[in-house]
Amino acid sequence: MAKKIAFAASDAPTAQTARAALIARYGTTPEEDADVIVALGGDGFMLHTLHRTQGLRAPVYGMNRGTVGFLMNEYSETDLIDRLDAAQEEVINPLRMKAQGSDGQVHDALAINEVSLLRAGPQAAKLKITIDGNLRLAELVCDGALVATPAGSTAYNYSAHGPILPIGSDVLALTAVAAFRPRRWRGALLPKTAHVRFDVIEPEKRPVMADADSIWVENVLWVEIHSEPSISHRILFDPGHGLEERLLREQFV
Asked: What is the active site of this protein (predicted)?
């Protein structure tokens, strides 16, 4: 039985051209009726597609037509059906962020890669960190901090010198961004079930913004983060090029 494929593409000309060529070759179907959604672009567009289609039954298979493609497969027009038939599935759970702004409004967002807090002014941020209701760090002076999933551990987390986490490890990475005090504190590995809370110290003098996969909240007073097991994102990869293999490969380059 032929697969019903829906094609989605970023606004980049290369992605739009690829989408037109693939539709001409394979046809297309609405996403809600599709067996698989093929996303054409970079990692940013892949994250956008996963968020947008999280309520649909179809997994997402990405092909790289962008600048970064850690979550994407190589692009090819000629053998798509065979690749989809052979693709291996990875299932990941996003993080849920709740953040209260200085106006009192509480914002709710999901993040597949990470939730990050970043200083929004000239002075370093001061953060208090509580894990599962227990105070773990009374004051972290830094440019920011983040909580990353295994899927997101090679993104901003890795750039901030955080650890790469294997898929299926059931842990989260808590990583400091340019920590000033404690100077040598590099973060912590947390169980996937952990509830993390950041309280901003001196928020008027040292403003902080929070970001969940490019959903921004300015002037936050506190941020709570935990894994959301009720939501599962299904991603397809070519054999030998799944997240597990890519995470391993990143550690030997």
From this structure: 43 (proton acceptor)
